[in-house]
Specification:
Layout lengths: L1 H19 L7 H7 L4 H4 L6 E3 L4 H5 L6 E9 L1 H16 L5 E10 L4 H11 L6 E7 L5 E7 L14 H19 L1
Parallel strand pairs: 1-3, 2-3
Antiparallel strand pairs: 2-4, 4-5
Helix pairs in contact: 1-7
Length: 181
């Protein structure tokens, strides 16, 4: 019985400490409202570039900062929820990183054919997905990391949305680690 209490207390403490890492006070009502909008609207007024599949490689090369590319479906719950994280993280890291977005589908996930094409062209396994490119010594951009975040988490349906801030803090911590390399 005591070990269950200790484990619960430890987990609760861990969640509170991770949440405390968030550097700014985020209005969770705004986040919840944003998550209901299409991705194009969520990221409309941000300094996030818009890429196309046709010009992708031209857009990726020749950068002086590492690049984060967000692949999404415009009217797709997981993409919309992940876009809220991109919105906040991109403003936090605007001086250190470039951000871009590429719409792969207007509604829902991309078709199997398009998903296969995305995997072949960009090594993207899932949508929504994020590719992180870093500048190499010879100033070419190299794929540093790929992440798929299953953004269909319950905290977007709970009143406190405690775990959104946990995800936010975890993304910031991961970016800090990638930038430290």
């Amino acid at each position: 019985m005591l070990t269950i209490f200790v484990k619960s207390l430890l987990l609760f403490s861990l969640l509170l400490s991770v949440q405390a890492l968030a550097s700014k006070d985020i209005n969770m009502v705004e986040v919840r409202n944003l998550a209901k909008k299409p991705v194009d609207e969520i990221l409309d007024q941000e300094f996030i570039e818009i890429f196309s599949i046709e010009n992708y490689w031209k857009s990726v090369h020749g950068r002086n900062k590492p690049l984060v590319v967000f692949f999404y479906s415009n009217h797709h719950g997981p993409s919309q929820r992940l876009a809220t994280l991109i919105k906040y993280v991109s403003s936090d890291y605007a001086n250190k990183l470039s951000f871009a977005r590429l719409k792969v589908s207007e509604k829902a996930k991309p078709t199997k054919g398009l998903a296969k094409q995305l995997n072949e062209k960009f090594s993207l396994d899932n949508t929504p997905g994020i590719l992180f490119y870093d500048n190499s010594a010879n100033s070419d951009m190299i794929l540093e990391d790929e992440d798929y975040i299953d953004a269909d988490f319950k905290e977007f349906r709970t009143p406190s949305m405690l775990l959104w801030k946990t995800y936010y803090s975890a993304v910031r911590k991961a970016l800090d680690a990638l930038l430290a390399d």
